[in-house]
Structure formats: C-alpha cells, structure tokens
Amino acid sequence: MAYFLKHLTEETMALKKLLIPPEFIRNCGRVNLTNPVVLEPTVGDPPEVELELYEDARGFWLRNGWQEFADRYSLNHGNYLLFEYKSFSRFKLVMFGANGVDVMCPASSFHNVGSNRNNQEFPDAEREEEIRGSPVAGGGGRQPARPRSAENAKQKTFMATRKGRTADGGRRGKRS
C-alpha cells in the first residue's frame, strides 16, 4: 500500500487542480497511474469520482472533475486529504477538516444540524455531562457497580473454593 497526504492551500483551491507529490510518483511508479484516476471517498454519493491525470513541468495533477469533487465535499484550504493507492489508478480517500476530524458526508447530505445519522436528536446537555463524568474523559467519575448475576456469583464461589479458600474468602485449614 502506498499513501500520500495533501494539505489543501489557498493556492491549490485557486488552481482548481491537485498536484500529486512527485515523490509519490517516483515511489509508486508512473506506469501504475493512467486515466481516469478514480477516487473512492469513505462516504458519499457518488461512491467514485473519475479525474483526469495531467502532466506538466511540475508533475502530475488531478484536474477535470477536481473542482466538482471539492465543491461536493465542501473542501477548503486548511483541509487534509489522505490518499491510499489501491491499484489501477484507484485511490481510497479519507478527508479531514482543518480541525483534524474526518469529514463524514458531502455537504448535500446534511439535513438536520444536531442530529445523528438516524435523524435522532442528540440530548447535548445530558451527553456532555455523561462524557465529562466518565473516567476516560478525565472527569473522575466512576462507573456504577455492575449487578452480579446469580450465575456469576456461583462461578466466583466455585473458583474461590478451588483455590483453597472458603466461600466467604477465608483460607481452609488442614484437617487432621
């Protein structure tokens, strides 16, 4: 597998085309890249985007179709794109916002801000409190004790007696 990461700059967005790093071409080999180049975003519609590969003095570019792709996914300067070369001019593409969080859906897919994918409302205040109180988030909160089932209690007692302990945790003495 071969990868390259692109940081979208104002220049890139103004040029309306994307330069493939020359180092990637050297490492991957020019023979592996032919027209059309297919991008497979992790999500979105359409699942594939065909772009024209174009060569000039600076290197190989993705153009015809690039601007439409950037518009569909609301890409702006500051975004990052991780390209994973699959084979036969196909790339899996993961898109990240300027904040480093992956872009989940194209702009046309957003319907309700504050909703999850199933259009269920997030209880923001409750969720924030739940996260803040979790030990993982550093909130110092403790997980509630899990109730022990009767089967679980029997298994614990059995294991304790096999290790030479009584059911109440004490040691069994030797009998004479």
Account of the 3D structure:
By secondary structure, this protein is an alpha+beta fold. The protein has a domain at 2-107: Beta Barrel (At1g16640 B3 domain), CATH 2.40.330. Helix content is 24%, strand content 23%. The chain is built from five helices and eight strands, in the order βαβαββββαββαα. Strands 1-7-8-3-4 form a five-stranded mixed beta sheet, with helices on one face. Strands 2-6-5 form a three-stranded antiparallel beta sheet. Strand 5 and strand 6 form a beta hairpin.
Query: Level of helix content?
Result: 10-25%
Head-to-tail CA distance between termini: 70 Å
Order of helices and strands: EHEHEEEEHEEHH
CATH class of the domain at 2-107: Mainly Beta
- The share of residues in extended strands comes to 15-25%
Q: Report the average pLDDT across residues.
A: 69
Low-confidence stretches: 108-148, 157-161
Total helices: the number is 5
GO molecular function: DNA binding
Domain TF-B3: 3-99
Protein name: TF-B3 domain-containing protein
Subcellular location: Nucleus
Task: Throw out a few tags for this protein.
single chain, 176 residues, alpha+beta, At1g16640 B3 domain, five-stranded mixed beta sheet, three-stranded antiparallel beta sheet, 24% helix, globular
